[in-house]
Amino acid sequence: MMPDPPPTVLHHGTTLRRARSIEENGPDPDYQEPGSGYSAEGFSTVIRDGPPCSTGTPEMAARNKAALFPDEGGPAILEIAVPAWIMAILYADPIAAGLARSGEIRFELESGLAELRAEWPNLTKQVIPL
């Protein structure tokens, strides 16, 4: 029997408060950033040690969020190990696969978000304060 492929380790840059909330509760597609007026609709990450996405590295995103929201504990990275079977769902979606080629791993309802949220309690994850 073939062993399962290794998980893909992803990074999400945000504030410490948000990273801890996501770590505990999973990504919330209905989350609205204060003052934004719109829902997240997905969950954006990049592959650890992979290329940055068009908005930069997770560290840059975390520092930018911390500057915008100084009462949220400073910048942090949420690191998540995502099983290969969930990544396969994401890569099967043409739009998500296109984003992935540019560096962004974005889970949406049609590209693995429901599966990611269902599996969330079983995933290995950690918050890394910056």
Tally of domains: 1
Question: What sort of overall outline do the alpha carbons produce when their principal axes are compared?
Answer: globular
Strand content: 15-25%
- Order of SSEs: EHEHEHHEHE
Please mark out the parts with pLDDT under 50 across 5 or more consecutive residues, or reply none: none
> Roughly what is the average pLDDT, rounded to an integer?
93
Q: Tell me the structural class.
A: alpha+beta
Radius of gyration: 14 Å
Strands of the widest sheet, in order across it, are 4-2-1-3-5
Give me the oligomer status. Answer: single chain
**Discrete helix count:** 5
Could you explain how this protein is built, in words?
- The chain has 130 residues and is α+β, with helices and mostly antiparallel strands.
- The chain has one domain.
- Helices cover 35% and strands 25% of the residues.
- The protein has a 5-stranded antiparallel β-sheet.
- The radius of gyration is 14 Å and the shape is globular.
Brief descriptors of the model:
single chain; 130 residues; alpha+beta; five-stranded antiparallel sheet; 25% strand; globular
Layout of helices and strands:
Blueprint: E1 8-15, H1 16-25, E2 42-47, H2 58-68, E3 75-82, H3 84-92, H4 94-101, E4 105-108, H5 113-119, E5 124-129
Antiparallel strand pairs: 1-2, 1-3, 2-4, 3-5
Q: What does this entry show, briefly?
A:
Helices cover 35% and strands 25% of the residues.
